[in-house]
Sequence to fold (149 residues):
Amino acid sequence: LEGVWGRPWGAEALDASVALAWHLRQRDSARALRLADGVAALLAAAPDGAARPDAHRTRAALAACEASALLCDFDVAEHRLAEARRHLDRRADPLAEGDAWLVEAVLAKLRVQRAREMAAHERAIACFQDADAPERLALAQVWLSFERG
Fold:
């Protein structure tokens, strides 16, 4: 994959870009969106036969979804969530699936879709239980209890 200034972009740089986009999604949504779009463009432009990891595509789409939602671009956010789910359908990853449900909960909250938000929280909790991810499970449970009041 070609990276910045035509230099080859190795797996470490791709991993770092996806991770940075994920971590920036709530702190600097515009920058996270640019990073996620860059990762998606690199993966889409990869020559046939090149590695196209669905994990990177999923995480980049989720970061772009949440960043778009926080920037109030809800149609783009819905599109990115659907994109992430397409990538998730190709592999079993309950942790990423749980993250997708949490991102959906954020989007639903911003769109004032309470039933959708609560259902997304419940699904995230189930996924994090399946993934044996106690930190994310605790986060989802606390968030759900807070939202229920």
Notes: Helices lie at 11-24, 29-45, 54-70, 74-88, 94-110, 114-131, 134-148.
